[in-house]
Amino acid sequence: MSTGDLHVRAMTPADDAEAYARVATEAFYLEGSEHDELRKAEIALLQAHPGDYQGAFDGDELVAVAGCPIRLMTLPGNGQQPVACVTAVGTATSHRRRGALRAMMRFQVEHIRKEGRTGIALLSASEGSIYGRFGYGIASERANFEVPRGTEFAAGVDFGSERVRHLTQEQARDHVRAVYEQVAPARVGWLTRDEHNWIFAHFPATGGATPMRFAVVSGGYAAYQIKANWQRRGPASELMIKELVAATPAAHAALWRELINLDQIGEITWDRTGVEDPLPRMLRDPRQVTVDVVDDLWVRLVDLSTALPARTYSAPVDAVLEVTDEFCPWNAGRWRLVVDDKGQATVERSTADPDVRLDIADLGAIFLGGVRLTRLAAAGRVVEHRAGTVSALTRTFLGDTAPHIPEVF
Ligand SMILES: CC(C)(COP(=O)(O)OP(=O)(O)OC[C@H]1O[C@@H](n2cnc3c(N)ncnc32)[C@H](O)[C@@H]1OP(=O)(O)O)[C@@H](O)C(=O)NCCC(=O)NCCS
């Protein structure tokens, strides 16, 4: 596939590995030997998913890269299902704004559709204005928490009776993986992880801090780093949580209490917990947690007819949707969506009058069950032709919990 003087093809580990890792890391300004481990992990992922990484070339020179390896993600009601995880998207500084990204995005959707392993693509965006034009919609948000050391818990919180231990990454490894694997299948938005994905999930990206440390308790762990900060009145170091996973409310409470009370800390921060993390509801003064919310997972239904039945739904519905989709015209047009009383969906082409008109990005946004269609309608993105359809679809799509992804992939 060509665009101007650039052409896109699948990359192969044999021919493209070194150049791929260089372009992918330099696009994020991660140069220098301290990022060797990251480059190795990028190459290992390319090797593990042959065919799922694309490069744009200027002659023989690789100038832009992207990947869409398939992983399993927990979807509402239907356990772990294949999704294309769009990753490592970058264009060399010298070749920006010449259409490389657009050409790779086109190559990707056609590749995903042709392979037929999933109809769902998703990503976390480095900048908020890039991916809407390609039919991606915001399907989950993440919360950034800041909690001061010593914050008190409310009366009655159950912390269990076990003492929390602090371990190195090596010591904690098996426990951490077992807990994650136990918890992930029930958490909408969480991915399965192989060896390579674990390196990314806990890669200590923050320089000037301790190596990753682990607090562990039965059924839970917290991965964190500490960044020293000495002030005239005493230490005010930052404890940065990378990931806190707990199978039970008591393990969750015990881990938070441990981290909130560590010596020499000023603030405990976590920049990617779920918007429904129960911590504020466990504190005597919930306002002690300051919360910033930002977009996280962007979902693109590459093939809506296979994507929509991949999850189950919360309420029956029978509606004709008129879908617009400029980038993937095979999705455009009228579809009848029927959800039965067990939450199973069927979707087929229709010639009936539409009940509602919306864009594919909006279907992607509501797909994980965390966004109400009423919110998108209030933003003027949805046209309702039959009164009540937006509310009905809102109830159908909304899940029991807000989707959340604990990692950057
Ligand atoms: C983001 C990035 C990959 C874009 O690559 P590119 O090859 O310059 O993009 P293209 O020339 O194909 O642009 C495609 C479209 O996206 C728009 N676009 C590109 N980068 C954008 C940005 N950072 N913000 C907003 N819009 C952007 C272009 O204006 C163009 O719009 P149009 O086709 O509707 O007119 C590149 O700037 C980059 O490598 N950035 C640093 C790494 C990064 O952030 N990667 C994304 C990870 S999610």
Q: CATH homologous superfamily of the largest domain?
A: Gcn5-related N-acetyltransferase (GNAT)
* Reported CATH architecture of the largest domain: 3-Layer(aba) Sandwich
In angstroms, what is the radius of gyration?
23 Å
Please report which band the strand proportion falls in: under 5%, 5-15%, 15-25%, 25-35%, 35-45% or over 45%: 25-35%
Helix content: 25-40%
Which stretches of 5+ consecutive residues score pLDDT under 50? none
Tally of distinct domains: 3
Q: How far is it from the N-terminal to the C-terminal residue, by CA?
A: 26 Å
Rough shape?
globular
Total number of strands: 24
Strand order of the largest sheet: 11-12-13-16-17-10-18
Structural class: alpha+beta
Number of helices: 10
Summarize the structure.
The protein is an alpha+beta fold and 409 residues long.
Task: List the defining traits of the structure above.
409 residues, alpha+beta, Aminopeptidase, Nonspecific Lipid-transfer Protein, Chain A, 3 domains, seven-stranded mixed beta sheet, 24 strands, binds coenzyme A
Detail the topology: elements first, then pairings:
Layout: E1 2-3, E2 6-10, H1 13-27, H2 36-48, E3 53-58, E4 61-67, E5 70-75, E6 79-85, E7 87-91, H3 100-115, E8 120-124, E9 137-138, E10 141-148, E11 165-168, H4 169-183, H5 195-201, E12 213-217, E13 220-227, E14 230-231, E15 234-235, E16 237-246, H6 249-260, E17 265-274, E18 290-295, E19 297-301, H7 304-307, E20 317-324, E21 333-339, E22 345-349, E23 356-359, H8 360-367, H9 373-378, E24 383-384, H10 389-397
Parallel strand pairs: 6-8, 16-17, 20-23
Antiparallel strand pairs: 1-2, 2-3, 3-4, 4-7, 5-6, 8-19, 9-19, 10-17, 10-18, 11-12, 12-13, 13-16, 14-15, 20-21, 21-22, 23-24
The chain binds coenzyme A (COA).
